[in-house]
Amino acid sequence: MQAAPTRGIGHPFFRLLIPALFAAAAWGLPARGVSEPAGQDLPQTSEAPLRAEAGVQLPDTAELQARIKDLESAAGTDEAATTALLEQYRRTLANLESAQAFDTQAADYVKALEGAPKETAEIRQDLETRPGSALTEEPLPNDLKADDITQRLGKVKTETALLEARLSDLNKLIDGATARPPAARARILELKQTLEQSGSAQRQPPPEGQSADLAQANTWAQESRRQAQLAEVRATEQELASLAVREELYRARHDQAVRDLERLKKLRGGLEAMQGESRKADAEAARQEAEAAQREAAGKHPLVQQIADENAAITSSLGRLAETLDGLNAESARLDQEQKRIEAEYRGAQQRIQVAGLNRALGQVLIDRRSQLPDLRQYRKDIARRDDLAAAATLSQIRYREEQPQLRDLDQAVNDRVAGYPDAQTPNVRAELRALLEQRRPLLDKAVAAEDAYVRKLGELNGAAQQLIQTVEDFDAFLAEHLLWVRSDLPLGIQTLTVLPANLAWLLSPERWGEVLLVLGYALTHSPVSWLGLLVVAALFVRGSRIKRALLASAEPLRRVRTDGFRHTL
Predict the structure, then answer these.
(1) 279 with 302, same domain?
(2) Taking a C-beta distance cutoff of 8 angstroms, is the pair 225, 95 a contact?
């Protein structure tokens, strides 16, 4: 009897079964999460169809966009069915795009987890080898022209503004990294609960009478929403996993930006000092030249003396503006330091309350700090005063600019000046006037530039003061909101009763009342207003009963409707 044939591994049945088992195993592999080693790839963010549970195959975005376009251009179809289909297709498309965006975020967090420690170490090494004190700029040439100084100063101001904006962004990132973990964990928990609930809802059969296309669209919308939520969970988990290294990187970049900002401020200070010296030198040279011309004009025609005096007045204003601009630079530095100090204290208070909560000890510290906030009334007065100064400087600048075109043609300018002065028509007087007007042209150019710099500096100061006021108001509002719940004294209890005798003894102490009498006596002897107040109080005591009777008598007509009237109210 022949033995029954056995099925070996080479049998066609096994050749089909083994690949199928491998495919099924690969199909059921779970998505990789935070616990995987750094360096492994996250799910791809391409537009390939996303894998779905329960045999649901999601379309890619291109297919969905094509379906939406076909439905929008279709004519003669059921409008209600088309609207329902379009709504589900658009939801699916939005969910797919959201899932791809979250996958991109997760990939960025993985890259940060790998690359942030290296970049942080490089920045820290740079800060150790080249601290702020070791960064020295190339010495500025002593022969720099005024235009070159202005150009360099403008470039430094632009770089400083960009770096300050970067510092502000880094501070926000650091603050966000400190406060982010609780919110991220709560979001992950919320998403997982939503996924559990949506899983049971997704297994419900479609309603009876629903078309196959709409049922498929609903399934796509539900599954794509689940995929988007899963992608958000992965991205949030990767965000938490990389949070520590990213925060260290933010702090390193912050320290590096602070160092570079200090270097730029030193460079700006040097350029502003050089610009101030250049202005002073130009103003002094112009003053000496104008005074020499003024001395030469002594005893000459009154018109010549008038123009010489006007030129001397312009040079005097140039000198005053140069000195004033130096003072404004110092005031700007003071406002900048005050702004940074308040911002640091504000940020520190926010971080302490977020991390440790508000207790009585911290509350008392913040109460004391709130009482030490700067008085904003003085800052507002300074802003109004600078606005008035800027308005006056702008008027002077307008007058100078109006005169500049008149001096382009010196001969015509001389004719305009001597008109109405017959005794000034001589060649000598005209030549002297022409020389003085020619000297006046560069003076007007310098005066316009100086007034323009003055107005801009006043505007910068007012902007800095407004920013400081806003920071102080925000800090004060923050403290007022949180200090409302801070106990200002101990609650009543047994301890209160134990200290009550000592407090009563303090209240009834003759020594304390003697101090009160001394203070009142000092006020009465040094302030006439105190005597007036004392006399008013004494008069009220003496005439108290009479005043009471007068009030009762005046109220008698008000008791009855017949005798009451509007005149009694008046």
Answers:
(1) no
(2) yes
Distance CA 408, CA 62 (A): 69
By C-alpha distance, which of 116, 102, 104 is closest to 242?
116
Within a domain: 400 = yes
In the block, which residue shows the tokens 């001589």? Answer: 426
> Two tokens at 100?
């791809």
Predicted TM-score (pTM) above 0.70: no
d(CA 401, CA 413): 15
DSSP H helical ranges for 406-509: 410-418, 427-483, 494-507
Radius of gyration of the chain from Cα atoms? 41
Instruction: Round to whole Å and give the CA distance between 111 and 238.
Output: 10
The CA distance from 570 to 565, in Å, is: 9
Q: CA 391, 395, 399: angle at the middle one, nearest 5?
A: 170
What range defines the domain where residue 184 resides? 50-203+211-283
Q: How far is CA 425 from CA 184, 301, 303, 310, 433, in A?
A: 88, 11, 11, 21, 11
Q: Does residue 469 share a domain with residue 408?
A: yes
Tokens of 209: 């009478």
Would 245 be classed as within a structural domain? Answer: yes
Per-residue pLDDT tens over the stretch 261-280: 888 888 888 888 888 888 88
State residue 29's pLDDT score.
37
The answer to the question of residue 498 being in a domain is no
Burial of 381 (0-12, 13-18, 19+ CB in 10 A): exposed
Last residue of a domain, one of 456, 489, 522: 489
What is the C-alpha separation between 412 and 409, in angstroms, rounded?
Answer: 5
Closest residue by Cα to residue 472 from 346, 359, 569, 305: 346
Q: Are 45 and 103 in contact (CB under 8 A)?
A: yes
